[in-house]
Write a structure and sequence with these properties.
alpha/beta, pyruvate-formate lyase- activating enzyme, 214 residues, five-stranded parallel beta sheet
Length: 214
C-alpha cells in the first residue's frame, strides 16, 4: 500500500478506507509494506503494531519552501520526520524514500536530510532520481523554471529515454546515488536505488524496504 497511489491522501482522514483495509488484514497472514508521504499513517498505529508490517515515508528535502512547490498537498518535512520517529519508537520498522532527487532543486543538503532520517529512527533509505514524463515535466517547468532550463539538456539531449520516462545521464545518476549510498554507510543505514541499475551500491535485501518486515 501503495506503489502507484498513496494510501494516506487527505480524504483518508475522513473516509478511513485504508484503515478499513488494515482491519481486514488483521486475521490474515500477510506481509504489508506501507508507502506514503503522509504522517496520517501514525493514526493507524494501533493496527500496524498488530501486523507484519513496515512503513516507508517519502521525504525529499528539509526545505519547507521546496516541499510546498514540489509536493503541494503533502505534510511538511518535519511532520513526516516526526511520523518516522513515532513509528520507529513503537517498534514499526521504518524506511525513508528520498525520491525523487532533482539536480538544482533538492540535491543540496542531502547529507543533512540523511542524518535527520537516521536520528528519527529509520533503518533504510531508498533513493532515485527524477524520471519525468511529459505531463510531469510540464508541471515542473511551471514551478521551477530556472532549474528546468538547466535540466532540459541533461534529460532530453544528454540523457536517455527508457519506456515512457526520461533519465539523466548515467554518470550523473551514479554520482548522485553514490553520494547518498556513501552517507548511508557512514550513518549505518541500508541503501538501495530503484530503477537506476547501480546494484553495486545496494546494501539492503530489497529496494523498496520490504526486507524490514519481520
Amino acid at each position: 500500500m501503495s506503489n502507484s497511489s498513496d494510501p494516506y491522501t487527505p480524504m483518508e482522514s475522513k473516509l478511513k478506507l485504508t484503515r478499513s483495509c488494515l482491519n481486514e488484514f488483521l486475521n490474515r497472514d500477510l506481509r504489508l509494506l506501507v508507502i506514503t508521504k503522509s504522517d496520517l499513517v501514525t493514526r493507524d498505529l494501533d493496527l500496524l503494531i498488530k501486523l507484519r508490517t513496515a512503513v516507508t515515508i517519502t521525504i525529499t528535502t528539509l526545505n519547507d519552501d521546496i516541499t510546498r512547490k514540489l509536493e503541494p498537498n503533502a505534510p511538511s518535512p518535519s511532520r513526516r520526520l516526526n511520523a518516522v520517529s513515532k513509528l520507529s519508537s513503537e517498534g514499526i520498522p521504518t524506511g525513508v524514500r528520498v525520491d525523487p532527487i532533482i539536480p538544482f532543486i533538492n540535491d543540496d543538503g542531502l547529507e543533512d536530510l540523511l542524518r535527520e532520517i537516521r536520528d528519527a529512527g529509520a533503518r533504510h533509505v531508498t533513493a532515485s532520481t527524477l524520471k519525468p514524463r511529459w505531463d510531469g515535466w510540464k508541471r515542473l517547468k511551471e514551478v521551477f523554471p530556472e532549474a528546468c532550463s538547466k535540466l532540459e539538456p541533461l534529460y532530453f539531449k544528454e540523457g536517455e529515454r527508457i519506456g515512457r520516462s526520461y533519465y539523466l545521464p548515467a554518470s550523473l545518476r551514479f554520482k548522485l546515488m553514490k553520494r547518498v549510498a556513501d552517507e548511508c554507510r557512514k550513518l549505518g543505514l541500508t541503501f538501495a536505488s530503484c530503477r537506476e541499475g547501480f546494484v553495486e551500491l545496494t546494501t539492503a535485501g530489497t529496494c523498496d524496504g520490504s526486507h524490514l518486515i519481520k
